[in-house]
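Severity: low
Component: inverse-folding endpoint
Summary: output formatting inconsistent between runs
Steps to reproduce: submit the following structure tokens with default settings.
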């Protein structure tokens, strides 16, 4: 909003692609018959994206030099068996003045994730300073790399440190500059050494000028339909301005260091996922509706902008078409893929949760909807079954109650207050119209208390639903705490009975081996509680489990009489995935793990789980009063809701 009027993209049939006025993206077809035989994740003739760089900070420029244009199997060494030893905690990068800024000698591309059952270690070849120039050859192999590695790119991204202009230059043009750079390194001059990177997150403006943010470590998460999916492991914030800290007074210097440190910590705390070839932001069904022209575009031109988190940071780069191969979209959320087996039949279970970025932030800072109908803690969750090339996908959504409301106060649980705003009706209407346009029919399942402090917000939600009067929307109120009190979670079956007929009608998406749609999902269940976390995740896991039976049965993996509960290994894996998802979503919104995950993991509540919930509730209270202000500030800075620059990047 701070960047000007936002309007629905006129060139796209999907109204959620909110583009700045005056911009456009390629049109896409809404007919599933327009592309019957296209692989949902294929990007066709999309431009190749750079996957590795060396970043050189010279006296005159910041040079982003691609090393390899494609991912190399030789660079991946699986460490899933045996389980890797947990690595030491990652310390935040130190912010130094430009003249004193040097590349850490012990930093490498290796990363190990002890929290993942299937981890991968990545190693980038170190480039000796004496071999920097030899890597500029477009035909010579890269120094110290496997003999079958692709050669370096013939051009690099160059940022002028005086004018901040971005350009693409051939390696012959920048050769002399790198000669001086090598000589400075050899003589011991205090310049930034080459930084190994896997992608560019973007450029952020602060008091001392622009900073380039690069990914220095990545964690391999999954192979999805032949494409590698990674999570950002560690990042580095590199100052672009030549004057840097020297252009600031002492107070500004102190403030700048605090901002950069907080910003770096914020990025490292997020769970950003990316792929160089797979569009993580789109569901299988939405991809199947894309025209061949849209699928041939680069990833950043075809992503769902609701989940394109670093879009603002990449504006300066993406505005130049020639630099499109450097634009890497990041998605915040949770991804898990695992091989499974039932009745001797092997298949893949893929789980993707996509956190929306149009209205996001800390728990009590970001509630309800904004005047445009974007809601807080919006998450699209997709469970996918892949069997013999057949893809079966079921999508659910969650999001804060789509009214203008807030919940502020110093207590453990402040009372929600509905705003008396003239935008109230428009916000609710726009939100629902958007859901109907993207997903189809909506089943609104609200789990808030029908007595106590949540009553007002619940009454307002129901009133707005009745005033809208849309027959494609159904409202279902289920008081979770009342129905399931004293750990009677079996009563969730009552909620399933209320919505199962609609679930059966809306169905799920399926495409055959030729990627032609067989079934389409014609609607979604939109679930919410007050936070859209703990209660919401429990209910979504129950609904996903109900639909999973149908998905597996239609694929021939199970029979009509089979019960998923009887297949203990898969049932346990399913529950743990949903519990892990709950923890990820809760950590992003509140800073703690989710509540009630003992039920999600085991199917019943325990004393240990109740005590853990108490500890997490106290931690949430502490975060609300002492940490969430800074978290919200960094979120707004990352998404471009406000800026700190004293200097402007050149157009």
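Observed output (run 2 of 3):
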């Amino acid at each position: 909003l701070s960047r000007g009027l936002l309007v629905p993209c006129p060139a796209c049939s999907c109204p959620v692609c909110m583009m700045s006025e005056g911009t456009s993206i390629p049109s896409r077809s809404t007919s599933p018959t327009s592309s019957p035989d296209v692989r949902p994740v294929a990007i066709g003739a999309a431009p190749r994206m750079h996957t590795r760089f060396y970043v050189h900070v010279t006296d005159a420029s910041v040079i982003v030099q691609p090393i390899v244009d494609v991912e190399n199997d030789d660079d991946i060494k699986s460490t899933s068996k045996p389980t890797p030893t947990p690595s030491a905690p990652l310390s935040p990068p130190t912010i130094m003045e430009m003249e004193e800024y040097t590349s850490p000698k012990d930093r490498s591309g290796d990363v190990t994730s002890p929290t993942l059952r299937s981890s991968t270690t990545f190693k980038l070849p170190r480039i000796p300073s004496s071999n920097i120039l030899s890597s500029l050859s477009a035909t010579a192999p890269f120094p110290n790399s496997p003999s079958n590695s692709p050669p370096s790119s013939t051009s690099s991204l160059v940022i002028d440190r005086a004018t901040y202009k971005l350009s693409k230059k051939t390696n012959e043009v920048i050769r002399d500059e790198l000669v001086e750079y090598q000589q400075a390194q050899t003589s011991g001059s205090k310049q930034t050494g080459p930084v190994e990177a896997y992608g560019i997150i973007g450029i952020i403006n602060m008091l001392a000028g622009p900073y380039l943010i690069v990914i220095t470590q990545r964690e391999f998460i999954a192979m999805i339909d032949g494409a590698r999916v990674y999570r950002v492991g560690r990042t580095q914030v590199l100052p672009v301005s030549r004057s840097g800290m020297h252009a600031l007074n002492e107070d500004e210097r102190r403030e700048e260091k605090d901002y950069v440190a907080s910003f770096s910590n914020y990025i490292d705390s997020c769970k950003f996922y990316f792929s160089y070839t797979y569009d993580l932001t789109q569901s299988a069904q939405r991809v199947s509706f894309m025209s061949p022209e849209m699928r041939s575009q680069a990833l950043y031109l075809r992503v769902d902008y609701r989940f394109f988190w670093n879009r603002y940071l990449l504006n300066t780069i993406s505005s130049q078409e020639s630099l499109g191969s450097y634009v890497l979209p990041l998605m915040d959320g949770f991804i898990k893929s695992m091989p499974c087996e039932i009745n001797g039949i092997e298949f893949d279970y893929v789980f993707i949760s996509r956190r929306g970025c149009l209205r996001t932030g800390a728990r009590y800072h970001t509630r309800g909807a904004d005047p445009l109908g974007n809601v807080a803690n919006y998450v699209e969750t997709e469970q996918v079954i892949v069997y013999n090339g057949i893809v079966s996908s079921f999508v659910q959504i969650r999001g804060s109650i789509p009214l203008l409301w807030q919940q502020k106060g110093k207590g453990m649980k402040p009372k929600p207050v509905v705003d008396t705003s003239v935008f109230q009706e428009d916000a609710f209407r726009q939100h629902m119209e958007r859901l109907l346009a993207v997903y189809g029919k909506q089943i609104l399942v609200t789990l808030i208390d029908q007595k106590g402090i949540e009553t007002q917000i619940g009454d307002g939600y129901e009133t707005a639903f009745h005033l809208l009067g849309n027959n494609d929307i159904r409202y279902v109120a289920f008081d979770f705490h009342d129905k399931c009190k004293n750990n009677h979670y079996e009563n969730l079956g009552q909620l399933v009975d209320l919505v199962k007929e609609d679930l059966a009608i809306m169905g799920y998406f399926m495409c055959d081996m030729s990627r032609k749609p067989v079934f389409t999902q014609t609607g979604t269940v939109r679930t919410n509680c007050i936070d859209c976390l703990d209660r919401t995740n429990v209910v979504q896991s129950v609904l996903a489990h109900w639909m999973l039976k149908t998905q597996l049965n239609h694929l021939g993996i199970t029979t009509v009489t089979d019960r998923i509960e009887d297949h203990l290994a898969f049932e346990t894996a399913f529950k743990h995935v949903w519990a892990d998802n709950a923890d990820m979503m809760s950590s992003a919104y509140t800073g703690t793990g989710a509540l009630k995950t003992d039920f999600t993991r085991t199917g019943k509540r325990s004393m240990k789980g109740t005590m853990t919930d108490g500890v997490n509730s106290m931690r949430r209270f502490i975060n609300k009063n002492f940490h969430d202000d800074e978290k919200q500030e960094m979120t707004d800075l990352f998404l471009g809701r406000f800026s700190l620059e004293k200097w402007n990047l050149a157009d």
